[in-house]
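hey can u check if this looks right to u? its 232 residues, i copy pasted from the old doc so theres a chance i mangled smth
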Amino acid sequence: MMSEAVDGNLQRLVERDEENNQEDIWIFGYGSLVWKADFPFEEKRTGYIKGFLRRFYQNSIDHRGTQERPGRVVTLIHSEDPESKVWGMGYRIGATEKLQVLKHLDHREKNGYDRHSVKFYPYPWTANQVNDPQPILLYVATQDNPSFAGQNDKLEEIANQILTSVGQSGRNPEYVYKLAEAMRQLYPGERDDHLFELEKLLLESDPAVNVANKPEPSTDGDTKRSEVSKEG
């Protein structure tokens, strides 16, 4: 317990230093931020972090569900394999805007998420952008928060919960479809079995989906700043 308290204090000191200095920071998106960010940024890079797994273990009582019928969104859990990768999007936030962005994200992720600092590996290599690993901030749901749904639910149970959930950002299944399609477009050949198997289950049962109207993700790859969105 003492070690955990010390680690937590060090983490807060690191984050406070990042907020107060005059350097840019990086934010890692592994859910809806992969395809659409709702904050200003100077640069975005595809890439990955190590040592985590992406899982639909967090209830959503606002963006993709309600208090009465929560939806499911992704969080990260630690992997037993330190080399396991979670692919996502890294956003470089300018020094003059980082306090505004961090306050916005702290509010957006207030339903059980804490900030953490890890290492981000940009990929693929590009001549006109940063390629070296960068320290990056991300938000991870704490396992003792009221909306943490646990790690024991089968995919079929998660799919059933998602299938009937709707929040202020739209139908919960659309969140899964957009994330899965973004992963295929941005990282062809990379596997995320939890995500793709969940998508398959939903597509088999979702009466609102067929080949003609399956949601398409926003690529938005050439713009310096994203459109404003309440996506969650």
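The longest strand covers residues 113-122.
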